[in-house]
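Hi R.,

Here are the chain sequences for the assembly we discussed:
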Amino acid sequence: MIDAHPMIELRGVHRHFGATRAVNDVSFEVARGQVFGYIGPNGAGKTTSMRILATLDQPTAGDAFVDGFSVIDDPDRVRFRLGFMPDYFGTYANVNVREYLDFFARAYGLRGSERSRALSYVMSFTKLDTLAEKPIDGLSKGMKQRLCLGRAMIHDPGVMILDEPAAGLDPRARIQLREMIRQLAADGKAILISSHILTELAEMCDLVGIIEQGRLLAVGNVAEIQRSSAALQTTPIQARVLGGAGAVAEWLAGRQDVQEIRTDGELAMFEHCGDREAEAQLLRELIEAGFRVVAFGSQTRSLEEVFMHVTRGHVQ
Amino acid sequence: MTAIEPPLSKVDSGEAPAARRPNLWDRLDRLAERAGEWLNPILVKETRQALKSRQFMITFTLVLVCSWGWSMLGVSLIGPNIYHGYHGWDMFCGYFVILAFPLLVIVPFGAFRSLAGEREDGTYELLSVTTLRPRQIVSGKLGSAVVQMLVYFSAVSPCLAFTYLLKGIDFPTVLYVMACAFLASLGLAVVGLVVATATTEKHWQIVLSVALLFGLGWCFFLSLAFVLGELSRSPLPFQDGDFWVFNAALLTDYLSYFVLLFCVASAQLTFASNNRSSLLRAVMLGQQALFTGWMGWRFAKDDGELMLVVLYLAFSGLHWGVMGAFMNGESPELSGRVKRQLPQSFLGRAFLTWFNPGPAAGYVFTVVNMASVLLLAGIALVAGAMFLPGRASPVLGANPYPTLIAFGVAEFSYLVIYLGLGRWLTAVLRRLNQGRMLLGALVQVLLLLAGCCAPLTIHLMIADMRDDYSLLEISNPFWTLEEILTHRSLSPETTIVVFVLPIVAGLVFLGNLPSVVAAVRQVRIAKPQRVAEEDELFELQRHPPQPVIDPLAD
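And here is the predicted structure of the full complex:
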């Protein structure tokens, strides 16, 4: 069956706290199996939007939908389809890992063998099965993060909202978490994830949304954002030229479509304004001009660069 | 979900262990596990937590140690007299003190902390994104309180049985006091839960927790005063029929307030777009009907005692005044979800619109209910005068009817005026700031205080009229009503008041009419397509279509 609606949809969502516009006309969609990276500086409105989607808050205006159901009017239907992992652990005292997950499985209405299956699947998926009887208070941060991910997916939701799931994790735990999220997306879940570790988001996200001061500045994949942003319409290019890059730099300086030229021995680095076709044309012209070009390559911008270009570092 | 291989330790290694026939305990264990599947998840979690918690272990051990300690001390103090003296009651009092503290202080405060703690730690948010309903959360917390109570009872029960073996106390008294203690503990636990849901702000939580602790302490000492003082002096009249009627009335009132508080706690936890009001209004109406029933029965039994009509009017006025103040704090906007459930038929719209959420509907609901109270009181007066011998009341005098009518009219008018003004003021404050449920009640209290204190201050400054009622006090409902009631005939001032108040009440009511009309004009909206689709799917799952059998087919 083809989905007539996206799994996650924000439609003109506003959330105001007095004079502060925490979320200001935010709209985006996430389809089944997609991972949407939500990035922005602290206080940009990421958590507020996520809380609205998780039915923990109500928008001042606009609406948000999970699997086609409004978070305002049908929160109970939304909750059944949604797994939420907030940026805090939310653990109970005097409870071990199995009891904790068992409680949330019961809270989602899982009974008997269905609950046992869900528990063993989640503990195996999050690699917590060896820690089943361990009190939660004694878990490390990484283990707690895995436990919280397990809690969010115990009822096998179609949508997962993960607020800073990788915060404070060591590199190994981060890699493991990334693998888990990829696996969840491969299982067909729509995932909305926020993180400050942009390199990781770039690796696992199909779509990225950049938010600042409550406004969504850019949405799409990294390349799309680059194309749509006026500040990012140049491509960094490196060319290695036998016999030194000085002459090439002089030659390039006379062109309109090239800027920010730097040289380092045989290496010429510059920003080129144009599409892939124009890059090919530039290479052809360089060779025709007699330069012995042995390497010529455009570099994709990292998500960090895109983020820095798009945002201004303003906070409300 | 992918299938997971069972852990290696659980895989059959080929050597089948010797099969052991399940004994009674194994069967009981399995039965309990199966029953546990259907228990409230919160109850299961809280019980697991409580049994491992230090606070519970310490309290339980203390109760146990104190009970045994008191047994030892009591027996050694009484000495050989224990065989023939009447010391059962003395021993029972000691056990009651030991049991009452955990029941009336620890358990209710524990229920409060349990929910307030969840809100402070953020675990409540995790709970609220599950499919657990607020009602389940509250009942789970209450269930956990009951489990703790039962454990405390079990610790003291051998000692209570011991008191029964002594002379000086009978089994019904032990049972009655314990039942009262249980109900009081349960009632206070639900109060604790309501207080825990009242606010999410930490500073208010601290203020409320201190207030609750004082309140619980007061209840504890009150219970001691009742058992150690009252019951010690006069034993319970189990043979008296009126005693049981009084207890039945008390129990039904207790149950009605328990249900109301339970619904309030659940409503406070319910998502803002849900209908949090209709059930509460139905419960309030039920309470009024219950009170009317008991008062009517008493009125008939006491041959038309007119002071009962005054009590009926006074308590009903207080009930609707308090309820109306909280209803004023409701949000005037109806969510799409609520609009989907609005009554559609003419009769439904005429009678059920007032159960809808919103301050305007709530105002009319309150006014109509108080008007019904007035009407019922009038019917009681007429019926009493016609069919019952009647009883002269020393308070109301020889001709009590004008006084009673004036009292009823003035009380009703005050309710209409104060709630109407409170509704306007709350609506204005809502525009300035996000309103909360408590805003309506707070505005009402301040309005009433202003209405009472402002003229009183002026009054006290005029030396020669300090003790006399004057028209200046028209905004003070308490003094005015007291003045009407205690002076056996209406004074010139109260006569003016009784004529002025209904006019003002009518004007205030008319002023509120536009918003009432707006509330009535709300109409049902259709379900969104996605919801309708899913409902249809659920319906199909519940009632799969029957296969059509063609009798002509071979």
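The longest helix of chain B spans residues 88-121. Chain B has two domains: 40-236, 294-542.

Let me know if anything looks off.

Best,
T.
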